[in-house]
Amino acid sequence: MFRTALRNVLAHKARLLMTVLAVVLGVAFVSGTLVFTDTLGNAFRKQTAKSFDGTAVVVSSPTSDSGGGMSQDGLADATLKKIQGAEGVAGAVGRVSGFAGVADQKGKLIGSSWSNTGANFAPGKDGEDTSYDFTKGDGPVKADQIALDRKTAEKGEYEVGDTVRVSTSGPVREFTLSGVFTTEDGQVNAGGSLVLFDTAVAQKLYLKPGHFSEINVAAAQGVSDQKVLTEVKELLPKGAKAKTGEAIADQQAKDIESGLKNLNTMLLVFAGIALFVGIFLIANTFTMLVAQRTKELALMRAIGASRRQVKSSVIMEATVVGAIASALGFLLGLGLAVGLRSALSSFGAELPAGALVVAPTSVLAAFVVGVLITVLAAWLPARRAARIAPMAAMGSAHAVATTKSLLVRNTIGGVITLAGAIGIVSGAATGGGQGRMLIGGGAFLALIGVIVLIPLLSRPVIALVRPPLSRLFGVSGKLAAQNAVRNPRRTGATASALAIGLTLVTGLTVIGVTLSHAIDKATTDNVRADYMVTMASGNTMDASVLTALEKAEGVKAVSGQQAFFLKIDGEERIVSAVDAADVSEVFRLDTVSGSLATLGEGRIAIAEKTAEENGWKPGDTLPVAFHQDGDDRKAEKKELTVGAVYKENEFISPFVLSASVVAPYDSTPDIQEVWLTMDGGESAANEQALVKALGNDPGMNIMDKQELRNSFGGMINQMLNIMYGLLGMALIIAVLGVVNTLAMSVFERQQEIGMLRAIGLDRARVKRMIRLEAVVISVFGALIGIGLGTFLGWAIGETLKSSIPDYALVIPWARIGLFLLLAGAVGVLAAMWPARSAARLNMLTAIKTE
Amino acid sequence: MTTTPLAHRATTAAARATDLSKVYGQGETQVVALDRVSVDFRQSEFTAIMGPSGSGKSTLMHCVAGLDTFSSGSVRIGETELGTLKDKQLTQLRRDKIGFIFQAFNLLPTLTALENITLPMDIAGRKADQQWLQTVIDMVGLRDRLSHRPTQLSGGQQQRVAVARALASRPEIIFGDEPTGNLDSRSGAEVLGFLRNSVRELGQTVVMVTHDPVAASYADRVIFLADGRIVNEMLHPTADGVLDQMKAFDAKGRTS
């Protein structure tokens, strides 16, 4: 039996080509993902282990709750001294770090803001810091000196002795470059920048003078990490934590691994979708192979082969195909893993180097998945093969596709689809997370149901397009539309493959576009300012930034937004502290009652919903407690009068106070954003004026309204593009399916095409006929997918409605049109090869009787 | 059957092959399928081409009908020389001037009988001549079967549809490739009757390849081919006469 199977595979090489390709792509996706994440995980693990090499114990600063966020209290110099003197300790280094952005020669920030770090240079007795190897110059020991990591220095074209502009939380400062170093620091290896300051400077910048956020302890020769840990623990102030370097390295490795696991899962989900789509293609191929071999199989039955033997011969054939395809797919997957890494590094995400890790489980997974999918897809055709009666050997011609059994199929499909639709609609009605769960289940059922129903749907839907097609393309169009429904099962399976991809693509697009519209609307509705200034690091700014901006040329109105914690009526609330005079110039605040002008008199303004919930209205006085610098113990009880109630605004908290009211209680104000309205609105000159006012600080982010919208909506678009990319594989397989189906159709209809050529259909129109058939099938699949996707998008949108203000479903017609157009193009593309072979058909052999 | 030649018929040729040769392969493996064949197919005449297997009878028909290329010589359909035509022009010629009837019927299963009949006109983008179409339909007796699909028709009915398809566009010449080969004798006789009637009553020109002497006896003229050459010609043939002629070939084939 095995030899027959093998021989069959070899005999149908060409016809199995698309099937093999589909499995290869799916398996490549799976094994590429596994190998890539394994490789990455291994590289990261090695790196973390390396960066904690020689660190026995890490002590971290005690933290305290400053009324909203955790802040570090710091480890005093004295603690460091005590640890350095402890038994079994070879040395200890105090570390303090935070954001530091470096400007390149043009004044632009080097690297992305989240990976710009600054830290202290902590030389030992020999004047060297073991964490950093200086390749040029020396470490910074004076207040105006810094050192840079090698890559950052190269990017900025800085040499030792040059002046470098560095941005931290305050105004940008100039330093002299004292040296360039290399390090094992993971973030630096991943492409981040690192600035080293003199310890005193760093302490002042990031914590407070004489304090560290971390102390790294090295063990003396022959002393175990555990022993050092016990020694050190006794010397620590209350709240400080100590862990061995190994424990921390392990923890970091675990964190990375769980991060990678998420990536892994996401990629595998998309690989699964691609494989699922592949099933349809494989099933089509095997159905055709079985149909063509009806006589042969019947003969086998006639000479005594059992049903089981016939069935297993087909399954065996599928196994051989699956195994070959899996092997190829695995190799392609290795290539994919390598390619993915270099692709990511070309996007600026530098990943640690390391050899390709091929775990045995990856190999196993590739083969199991590949073979299983192929066998699964071939199961139904195999069963059909087993049912072939021995009598069929004596009959003539191919087995005709039955339409009889479609009745059972349609009933089942109808029931499943209905159940799915009910699930989706009730999910939309329920809303929230539970609703989304319901929708997820419903979507799955509906998709399966529609796939089952597609052969039924294909007839009426395609019948609709027949008249326009024949009017537009004459006889080619008419025949194409009819050919498309000749084998409803096959057309259905082909269209299903495309429909699955497009359901997901459309669903995601509807949600994405709807969300970004809501964000756009929120921005235009709520913001009056022309510009928003923030720190690139995401940190808060100090008051000097506000002062600098107030002086900028062309500024009409300016207000910072400062988060301030205040106990109002016994409840801890976040208050936006703003400029009382300018706040209504930078935000669109619609007053419901009272007047915002009263902010200047020290009154509080409250958002409508919050006010209603608590029954507050203008003129009411509220008991409040101000904390001195966030300290719970120093509370000053006061009363505030409600001055205004305004409609909710997304960009400001539900409580607004004048910054001058807050100032006495906050010596280091945390300004999150500064909003500015300028003379003449948004313009290059105005933006330049702001840049100048900020002293060309590369660490400052100036956004106009469009950029503001992009900063939120952009992420959604980026997500959408990634999803499109990941679904691309499933779509490619679907396209292969269309190619496959058409190639089969052309092969089966050789005689017919030959006759058409003989009675006068020219090559161009034969090609057009095949192309149109492909277009009809693809667009049909696309329509089903788009319909289902839009429905799902609507349903999920309904569940998000309550949590998104200004929610309104947006159907992205333009994009849907584009999808349809692309589906048509896919049809044309897929038909290229089958159409060519149809046009080149040898007429004489085609019309010859069998 | 040996009645007087029909004097009113034009003697111009609907199709003419002159010194037509078709050679496959080269050198030692060279096979000559047609060896300088010259023949006229006169208008309004029913010609049968006969000959043993491999005599080149199908090749002759394919070359004259513009389905196959030839090595040398010339073929004309009406005034058009086929040798110089490109594929596109050849296709157009087949569409407009030639009708075909195949052994395997070759109908499109997706189309109804009527749609199959008008297919050549559909391809040409022409409206069918209704009066003529009705005449043809009545002649082949398919009036009550027009909306049926080929799978719902018997073999004889299917071939009648094919005959109607060939006649409907009023081609200058109809070629039949063993048109009765797949039919039982009764259905075969029907189809041959239609072909003969189309020649007698409608003035159609028909050329048919066959190996069946009875089928050949329906023709006005039989051409015998052997080894790629025309070896004999018989006017107003009878089945027995054709059979005798064929037997003579067989005998010659055996003795040589």
TrEMBL record, chain A:
Cell membrane listed as a keyword: yes
Membrane disposition: Multi-pass membrane protein
Domain MacB-like periplasmic core as annotated: residue spans: 17-234, 491-689
Gene Ontology molecular function: any one: transmembrane transporter activity
Record field: transmembrane: 266-291, 312-337, 357-380, 412-431, 437-457, 496-519, 722-747, 774-796, 816-835
Chief localization: membrane
Subcellular location: Cell membrane
Alphabetically ordered keywords of this record: Cell membrane, Membrane, Transmembrane, Transmembrane helix
Pfam hit, one: MacB_PCD
GO CC terms, sorted: plasma membrane
Matching InterPro entries: ABC3_permease_C, MacB_PCD, Macrolide_Exporter_MacB
Residues annotated as domain ABC3 transporter permease C-terminal: 269-390, 726-842
Family: Belongs to the ABC-4 integral membrane protein family.
Protein name (record): ABC transporter
From TrEMBL, chain B:
SMART domains: AAA (SM00382)
One Pfam family this sequence matches: ABC_tran
Keywords: ATP-binding, Nucleotide-binding, Transport
SUPFAM superfamilies: P-loop containing nucleoside triphosphate hydrolases
Name listed for the protein in its UniProt record: ABC transporter ATP-binding protein
PANTHER family registered for this protein in UniProt: CELL DIVISION ATP-BINDING PROTEIN FTSE, LIPOPROTEIN-RELEASING SYSTEM ATP-BINDING PROTEIN LOLD
Family: Belongs to the ABC transporter superfamily.
Species classification: Bacteria, Bacillati, Actinomycetota, Actinomycetes, Kitasatosporales
One GO cellular component term: membrane protein complex
Domain ABC transporter: 15-252
Organism in which the protein naturally occurs: Streptomyces inusitatus
